[in-house]
């Protein structure tokens, strides 16, 4: 399974001989992978985990792990952090200020900050705030005190909480995608994190031209091209293949790129295909290579 990662350093879950999934850094050029140490948590009681990787201003890569454990009586999510470029050991860090969502599309790391959507029921726990996103500073290894509000979608026919929310990193910005699962998507960029300024990039009101059932589709933005075209991964019900497509806001048309079966996740890699780069530096730093 591919994690939400920087475009030059994929982080994946790969199966091992003992049938467990292990976290690894993948080199798309050679296919080699570097194993990360296991997270030291109570495997008998932890039933869900979310991993995020980001690059801080020093150039170091850090991995954030959040887990849900039934053994924690107050219902908090446990949080650990690991420096890939440093001691490569998991360290305890503070719990999120409120419960965050644990899905693959519910968080994104941008410019050394990990952003996560709050669960709807826990947004009200942050008193005096209408924030929907919390932020973890990977460089300081601390949660930022203020939550971030999100913009109101232009479709006023449905309450904001009735839309799917997806976070992603696009063009160096935190991106928020609204979609109603049928015929509406809207993409916003957080252009100024300090002032919490959002800018609407495009609104899609054309029905996705792919069959779906039940709750409809989920859209995942992968890449925004220089000419404004948007690369989107369309997640559908298990009966259908997922579709990688390109939407052109000028012509309001979709173009198929490929289909992938079995709910296969996708991602974008922008590193060099000539070798070296971030993976080579980490390997030189002493991570263990798995044959």
Characterize this entry briefly.
InterPro entries: F-box-assoc_dom_typ3, F-box-assoc_interact_dom, Gal_Oxase/kelch_b-propeller, Kelch-typ_b-propeller. The protein has 291 residues and is an all-beta fold.
Overview of the molecule:
- There is one protein chain.
- This protein is mostly beta strands and 291 residues long.
- It has a single domain, classed as Neuraminidase, CATH 2.120.10.
- The protein has one helix and 20 strands.
- It has one helix at 277-284; strands at 11-15, 21-26, 33-35, 46-55, 61-69, 78-83, 91-93, 107-110, 113-117, 133-137, 142-143, 164-170, 173-179, 185-192, 197-204, 218-224, 230-235, 242-248, 253-260, 289-290.
- It has a four-stranded antiparallel beta sheet with strand order 1-2-3-20, with no helix packed on it.
- It starts with 10 loop residues before the first strand and ends with a strand.
- 32% of the residues are buried.
- The model is unreliable at 279-291 (pLDDT under 50).
């Amino acid at each position: 399974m591919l994690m939400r990662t920087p475009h030059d350093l994929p982080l994946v879950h790969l199966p091992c001989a003992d049938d467990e999934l292990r976290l690894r850094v993948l080199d798309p050029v050679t296919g080699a992978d570097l194993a990360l140490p296991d997270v030291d948590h109570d495997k008998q009681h932890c039933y869900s985990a979310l991993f995020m990787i980001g690059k801080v201003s020093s150039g170091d890569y850090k991995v954030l792990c959040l887990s849900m454990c039934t053994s924690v009586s107050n219902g908090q999510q446990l949080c650990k952090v690991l420096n890939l470029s440093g001691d490569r050991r998991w360290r305890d860090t503070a719990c999120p200020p409120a419960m965050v969502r644990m899905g693959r599309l519910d968080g994104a790391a941008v410019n050394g900050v990990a952003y996560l959507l709050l669960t709807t029921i826990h947004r009200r726990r942050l008193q005096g705030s209408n924030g929907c996103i919390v932020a973890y500073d990977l460089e300081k290894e601390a949660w930022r005190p203020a939550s971030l509000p999100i913009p109101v979608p232009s479709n006023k026919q449905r309450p904001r909480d009735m839309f799917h929310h997806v976070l992603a990193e696009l063009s160096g910005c935190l991106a928020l995608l609204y979609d109603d699962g049928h015929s509406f998507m809207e993409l916003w960029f957080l252009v100024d994190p300090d002032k919490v300024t959002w800018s609407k990039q495009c609104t899609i009101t054309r029905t996705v031209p792919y069959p779906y059932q039940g709750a409809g589709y989920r859209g995942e933005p992968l890449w925004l091209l220089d000419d404004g075209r948007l690369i989107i991964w369309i997640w559908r019900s298990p009966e259908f293949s997922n579709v990688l497509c390109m939407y052109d806001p000028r012509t309001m048309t979709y173009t198929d790129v490929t289909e992938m079966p079995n709910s296969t996740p996708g991602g974008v890699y922008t590193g060099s295909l000539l070798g070296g780069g971030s993976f080579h530096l980490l390997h030189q730093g002493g991570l263990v290579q798995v044959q």
